[in-house]
């Protein structure tokens, strides 16, 4: 019963977040036109999503129709690289905690959506070749994209889209190597939070609202994606995620210099911000210090 309640709360809370691309080329927006909306969903380890999208500001409204958490993480491939190469190289990097392929740019996209939940991300799309992938791992540590949860799409030029304005932020979170700078004025209520990658490495952001009695050390211990692959992992099996914290929003990984606008409604309580990325040394960003507790009043 408690588990069901937690899942419902999780599904409600996880309705996320607008995002966008790098800062340079969209500053001159003079129109109030809304971003175009693209609906996509995931079920049974497969994406249902369009093959082509116009360049410019775009809201991705992602619905999770599966039984596990899913992402619609966007990656951009360098010219000449193929989707089978991506799937093979990235899955191998995850399996070995190795360096991620240099010819893949992390481009954001909808973050974790709970089963039956949604995640909305608005971001600026540049023309090019992209792939949606779900990097969530199953209980054996295999990423969903290795089981078929990936889909390529092409972004083509659309000059009219440059008239669409960027979202207006009420607050800011900076992602660095390896820490967060969270706006101390953040209070409960509705926010549009600008998330900026001010570091060198790609970073993501996952916000967990702590369950009563749980601490940042519980999150550090059980949400560490790399420790789980090593011999120093805890002896017991991990507890259900919802027994530790409720996912309260987040963004999929963005490369250095990118910014994301995240709309979310914060309720009073204790939160933990974590980055689930892996550093070139095979350690998680959490192990490098990219985990921080903060209170919302
Ligand atoms: Cu990070």
Characterize this entry briefly.
The protein is mostly beta strands and 297 residues long.
Structure report:
- The protein has helices spanning 2-13, 83-96, 216-222, and strands at 36-43, 46-48, 52-54, 56-64, 73-77, 104-106, 118-125, 128-133, 150-156, 171-176, 179-182, 189-197, 203-210, 245-254, 259-266, 269-274, 291-296.
- The protein is mainly β.
- The strands form four sheets. The chain has a five-stranded mixed β-sheet, covered by helices on one side. A four-stranded mixed β-sheet has the order 2-1-4-7, with no helix packed on it. Strands 11-10-12-15 form a four-stranded mixed β-sheet, with no helix packed on it.
- The longest helix is centred in the N-terminal third of the chain and has 14 residues, at 83-96.
- It is globular and about 50 Å long.
- The chain starts with a helix and ends with a strand.
- Mean pLDDT is 84; it is low at 1-31.
- The chain binds copper (II) ion (CU).
- Residues 178, 203, 275, 277, 285, 290 line the site of copper (II) ion.
N→C terminal distance: 29 Å
How many beta-strand segments?
17
How does the major sheet shape up?
5 strands, mixed
Class by SSE composition: mainly beta
Give start-end ranges of low-pLDDT stretches: 1-31
Ligand names: copper (II) ion
* Rg, Cα atoms, Å: 18 Å
Averaged pLDDT: 84
Series of secondary-structure elements, N-terminal to C-terminal: HEEEEEHEEEEEEEEHEEEE
What is the 3D shape?
Answer: globular
Q: What is the helix tally?
A: 3
The quaternary organization reads as: single chain
Strand content: 35-45%
**Helicity level, as a percent range?**
10-25%
How do the strands line up in the largest sheet? Answer: 3-9-8-5-6
